[in-house]
Amino acid sequence: MLSATALLLPACPRLPGNADRHNGNKKTDTVQEREISCIVTFRKEVFPLHSVASAAFSIAAMVVHVLSVAFTGFMMWLAVPGSDLFSWHPTCMSVAFMLLLLQAIVVFSPESSLFPASTRADKVQLHWILHAFGLVSAAFGFFAVYLNKEVNGRSHFTSWHGTFGLAAVCGAVGAAFGGLAAKFSFLRNFVKSSRVKMAHATGGMLVFLLAMTAVALAAYTNWFRNRVGSGWAWRAAFFTPIVLGLCVARQVTQSYLPRILEQRESQLDAKARMVQEKVEAKLKKKEDKKRVAPAAGGGKSSSDQSVSDAEDKKET
Fold first, then answer.
1. Average pLDDT over residues 294-310
2. pLDDT for 70-93, tens place per residue?
3. Which end of the chain has the lower number of beta carbons within 10 A, N or C?
4. Cα-based distances in Å from 113 to 44, 68, 81, 102, 207
C-alpha cells in the first residue's frame, strides 16, 4: 500500500508497505531515507520559496526607480510649483526624499543601483553629492511650509505629518554629519571606522523610514484629499512610500550591513591571529631559554671538575 507522499511524488521509489517491513529494519530505513530525500526535492522544485522571494525583491528593487520618478512627477503636477508659497513644500520635499535621497541610498545596492559597474569611490562621491542636493531641497521645502504657516498665523508641528517630517529633516542633517565622519578620518582616533559606517548606515535607514512615514501621512492632509479624493490615486500615493521604505530597509539590512560586519569580523580575526602569534613567540623564547640554561650549567660544572682534578694532580 502506497502512502500519500508516494502519490504526490510519482518519480520517487515505492514507499515501504507491510511486505517491505517484514524484510528487516535495514531495508525499511533505506526506503524511508529515499522518501525524505524525494520530499525535499519535491519542495525545492515545486515550491522554491526562497528563489521566488529573491526574484520578487529584485523586481521590486528595479521598480524603486519607477516609483520614485513617478511619485515625484505626480506631486509636482499636483502642487503646481510657483502657484503659491505652499506649493514649494510638497515639490521640494518630494524631490529631496523621494528622488535624491532615495537614489543616494540605492546607489550602493547590488540589485537596483543605476551604476553597478562603478567603483566604490565613485559611488561614495555620487552618494554625498545627491545627499547634499537633497538636503538643500529639503531645507527649501521646510522653510516654505514654515513661512506659509507664519503668514497665515497657524501653529507649527501640530499633526503627525509635521512631527515626522521635522524628525526626518533633523535626522537627514545628522546623517550628513555621520557621513562626513565615516568618509574622513578625523574621528578614527576615537571611534573605529567600521562602527561609524555601521551607525551611519543604520541611522540613514531610520531617517529614510521616518521620511516615508511622513510622506504616507501626507495623504491624510486636507490639502492632498481636496485635490486627489479617496480613490485609487490616494491609495497609490499612500502605499508608494511604504514600498520604497521596505525596499531600502531590505537593502541596508541584507546587503550593506553584512559587508561591514564581515569586514569587522575579518579585522578581529586578524588581531586575534596577531595576538596568538605573539603569545606563541613568547612561549617559544621561554622554552629556548630553558633548554639553553641546563646546557650552560652542565658545561660549567664539567670545567670546574677538570680544574679541580688538575689541582689534585699538582698536590700529589
1. 53
2. 999 999 999 999 999 999 999 999
3. C
4. 30, 13, 29, 11, 20
Q: What is the DSSP letter of 114?
A: S
Question: Cell numbers 596568538 label which residue?
Answer: 276
Cell output for 109: 545596492
Structural contact between residues 130 and 100, judged by C-beta atoms closer than 8 angstroms: yes
Provide DSSP, 177-191. Answer: HHHHHHHSSTTTTTS
C-beta separation of 176 from 131 below 8 A: yes
User: In terms of residues, how long is the chain?
Assistant: 316
Q: In the chain, which ranges are E strands?
A: none
Distance of alpha carbon 193 from alpha carbon 260, whole angstroms: 10
Query: What pLDDT sits at residue 87?
Result: 96
8-24 tens-digit pLDDT: 444 444 444 444 444 55
**Pairwise CA distance, residues 147 & 167, whole Å:** 18
Whether the CB-CB separation of 178 and 128 falls below 8 Å is answered with no
**Per-residue confidence band for 182, with pLDDT thresholds at 50, 70 and 90:** confident
DSSP secondary structure of 215-238: HHHHTTSHHHHHHH-SSHHHHHHH
The answer to whether residues 14 and 32 touch, using CB atoms and an 8 Å cutoff, is no
- Tell which residue, 107, 108, 96, has the closest CA to residue 71: 96
